[in-house]
TrEMBL record:
This is Choline transporter-like protein. InterPro entries: Choline_transptr-like. GO terms for molecular function: antiporter activity; thiamine pyrophosphate transmembrane transporter activity. Keywords: Antiport, Cell membrane, Glycoprotein, Membrane, Transmembrane, Transmembrane helix, Transport. It catalyses: choline(out) + n H(+)(in) = choline(in) + n H(+)(out); thiamine diphosphate(out) = thiamine diphosphate(in). It comes from Sciurus vulgaris (Eurasian red squirrel).
Amino acid sequence: MGGKQDEDEAYGKPAKYDPSFRGPIKNRGCTDVICCVIFLLFILGYIVVGIVAWVYGDPRQVLYPRNSTGAYCGMGENKDKPYVLYFNVFSCIVASNIITVAQNGLQCPTPQTVRQSLQQEFCPSFLLPSTPALGRCFPLSNTNFTLPEFPWISNTTIAQGISGILDSLNARDITVKIFEDFAQSWYWILVALGVALVLSLLFILLLRLVAGPLVLVLILGVLGVLAYGIYHCWEEYRVLRDKGASISQLGFTTNLSAYQSVQETWLAAVIVLAVLEGILLLLLIFLRQRIRIAIALLKEASKAVGQMMSTMFYPLVTFVLLVICIAYWAMTALYLATSGQPQYIYWVSNVSAPGCENVPVNTSCDPLDQSMNYSCPGLMCTFQGYSSTGLVQRSLFNLQIYGVLGLFWTLNWVLALGQCVLAGAFASFYWAFHKPRDIPTFPLSSAFIRTLRYHTGSLAFGALILTIVQIARIILEYIDHKLRGAQNPMARCIMCCFKCCLWCLEKFIKFLNRNAYIMIAIYGKNFCVSAKNAFMLLMRNIVRVVVLDKVTDLLLFFGKLLVVGGVGVLSFFFFSGRIQGLGKDFESPHLNYYWLPIMTSILGAYVIASGFFSVFGMCVDTLFLCFLEDLERNDGSLDRPYYMSKDLLKILGKKNQAPPGDRKRKK
């Protein structure tokens, strides 16, 4: 008895009864104000960075092609010329002053003039039938052409270059076919996503009826899989034992597949699987009561979602906010990357050619300058990069780092907002004594406004901690990538340990933040106090935490498998044309790649199922913390009644005392 008391005190004292507590506290104040101010100032600086990028950046340098003079195709004086034509598509280098030549109406009346023009790259050496792609003219992949006979041009080289380019441009045909398939099947893809949405919703709502049998079937399925594994490994061991195949005959080898042919491998597998089977059976026997509690909480979560259907569509709000954060960062990064004026230098392929002796190679030049009087063949004023002069250009790297930090911080804050809002809504459900009568009106909207008004700083605090760990992981991955070739085995082992530790730290912080946000939504305290209270509460009930977590993971995994697998099978039979007799309006479209809409439907189904089940998972976690608080705060008396469902009371062997004259009082 004393040991149990000391253990409880090690993880804090149980929550005390508070007669004024009736669910999420409404009379609360702002939390983590300093962090809120820092976050708002950071966002203001993030906006300033975006404005600076907008002023100094020029995304046209990336979005629009430029000719040899630096002018944009399809804009200004070239408004009617939207495409750039590469004279030598192999090197993607265009001739200099081609616009001047075109404006002067250059003609090639004699073979000698043709040769001079080609050598100076005033005209392309050859022309191929082409088609525009992203503002550039690329040769058609199915082009049949005859090479011109020029003594100064190697037809073999050209043929090899064209062959390689045409092979690579097959990707363009694939892209066109992909767009055609999407155009033909987008409607049916939306239908498949609608099916995924309905299946996800039905699965969650029906858990109140089938949670118990479903969990039982899943557990028996796991036991069955392990039992079959034991049987299969034993049969393999018996066959190899009769053959006398032993590891002593094989010896040591780096070919791991060779160990499948020795009896010791399968014997070890039998032992491992048998131990796992035994451990699982013992856990089921000794933890059956906690498994029943977990099932009851899953049923209660299904009821909560059914009472507040708007929570199932809150992930759409989170998705929109995430898209805004990512789009803002992408545009800011693009504008920053294109800040500064383009720089050009003289370039020539053969500096020893006649007329090229006095060319100032690698010095700056102006592609619009018409006074280049050098007679050097192949002389070009080529693009070198963007100028690094100026305050913005010198600080470009720091601004990009600021943008990356802003991206991670805002993304994590948006996810934290969604968790805290949903926790506030579901806590309102649990702490309503008479359900659904006592559930507040518009609980989701109230939780959203309450979270933004009082707890922006707490969410920013938790998001910042997670952001620092994530950026540390990215830096470590970058260092590992750069040093991978020079690492010895010991260095690789140390790097792997560091990466593993940071991965575990990130997982723990996500777990701690999630439960801290639940406590913030209920009690309105700051992040550190909420995280401490949540951690202590969970540690006082660690066995229940593990059981509920694993049962929930198993159930949600099966739900995702059911939704994604069902949509995938239906999509396969429909888009592959294996479903007949549906009528003309329901015929499968004719596709180049029927697997494309199938994979799109499967991916979309997974995203939809993950969104729905993330809400359900948050509901389970919230109700679980409320359930643990309910057990510590109340005792079932008239003054301190339990708020949990009658199923949970029955499993725990507890009951609420009915007031005199109202023995049939129902919750």
